[in-house]
Design goal:
mainly beta; Pnp Oxidase, Chain A; two-stranded parallel sheet; disordered C terminus
C-alpha cells in the first residue's frame, strides 16, 4: 500500500484503491465545492422561463428572503406492463408532475403570498379591484385570501446554486406555479411565526445562472482540479496571487519545493 496522495481518485474499476482514493472526484476541499444553503438563492417571477431572456430574466425576478425550507418534488406516473408471449416486463410512463413547498419567516414587509405574486404586481394589477380582494390597498405588503382571483394567476420560481468559491453548480426554473395550500400557525412560547405554501407546477426547466451574482475567479473543474489555483494553494503548489493574505507582507504560501 502506497502513501495517500491528494490527487488519488477512483475513476475506473482498475484504479480502485479504497484506502487511498476518493470515488469519482477529489474531495479534499469538498467544503468549498459542495452545494450549501448559504449559497442557494430562491426567486419569484414570470410564469415561464424563456431561453432567449436568460441574461435579462433576473431583472424580472424578486429574491425570496427569510426562507427556512424549500422542497421540490417531481413524480412521473409509471406502471409496469407485460405482453402475452414474453416473460419480460416493460414500463409505461406519463407526464411528470411537480410539487413544491416553501416555509418562510413572517416579518415586517412583504409576506410570502405577496412575494410569490410579484409578477402580477409588477404588471400593474390592482389587487383591490377583484371581486374577492387579496389586500385592502393596492400597495399593501400583506396578501391573503386564496379565493381572490389574483391567485388564479400563475407565477414562476427560480433556484440558483453556487459553491463557496462562486462556481456555478446549477439552476432550475419552476414554471406555471399555482398555490394550493397556505398555512400560518401561532403557538404560545414559540420564537417565530412561519408562513407555509404548497405549490403545484407544470415543469422544471434547466436555467442559465450566468446573469446573476459574482463570478468565480478560480475556474475550478472537478474533472481536472489540479489546475485550480485554489488546489495549488491548498497543497502547497503555486500560491494564489490575486487574493491578499490575512496580513499583507507576513503570510506566505510555501511552494511544493519548500
Amino acid at each position: 500500500m502506497g502513501e495517500p496522495t491528494p490527487s488519488a481518485v477512483t475513476d475506473a474499476s482498475t484504479t480502485w484503491e479504497f484506502q487511498n482514493s476518493y470515488v469519482e472526484r477529489l474531495m479534499d476541499h469538498a467544503a468549498l465545492t459542495a452545494a450549501h444553503p448559504d449559497d442557494t438563492l430562491i426567486l419569484a417571477g414570470p410564469p415561464r422561463y424563456l431561453k432567449s431572456e436568460s441574461q435579462t430574466i433576473y431583472e424580472k425576478l424578486l429574491p425570496v428572503g427569510m426562507v427556512q425550507q424549500m422542497q421540490v418534488t417531481c413524480q412521473k406516473p409509471t406502471v409496469p406492463a407485460m405482453a402475452i408471449g414474453s416473460g419480460r416486463g416493460f414500463y409505461l410512463s406519463g407526464k411528470a408532475q411537480g410539487t413544491a413547498s416553501v416555509a418562510r419567516l413572517f416579518m415586517n414587509g412583504r409576506n410570502l403570498l405577496r412575494v410569490l405574486m410579484t409578477n402580477a404586481v409588477a404588471s400593474g394589477i390592482d389587487v383591490t379591484l377583484f371581486d374577492d380582494k387579496a389586500a385592502n390597498k393596492s400597495d399593501s405588503k400583506f396578501f391573503t385570501n386564496l379565493d381572490s382571483e389574483l391567485f388564479l394567476m400563475p407565477f414562476g420560481m427560480a433556484v440558483l446554486f453556487r459553491d463557496k468559491i462562486h462556481n456555478d453548480l446549477g439552476a432550475f426554473y419552476l414554471e406555471l406555479c399555482m398555490i394550493n395550500t397556505w398555512s400560518l400557525a401561532v403557538g404560545a412560547g414559540q420564537n417565530m411565526i412561519m408562513e407555509n405554501v404548497n405549490i403545484l407546477f407544470d415543469r422544471v426547466q434547466p436555467m442559465d445562472i450566468g446573469g446573476a451574482g459574482q463570478k468565480s475567479t478560480d475556474n475550478y473543474d472537478p474533472k481536472d482540479p489540479q489546475n485550480s489555483e485554489l488546489f495549488k494553494a491548498i497543497f502547497q503548489g503555486t500560491p494564489i496571487t490575486d487574493i491578499p493574505s490575512a496580513i499583507d507582507g507576513e503570510d506566505t504560501v510555501p511552494t511544493s519545493n519548500s
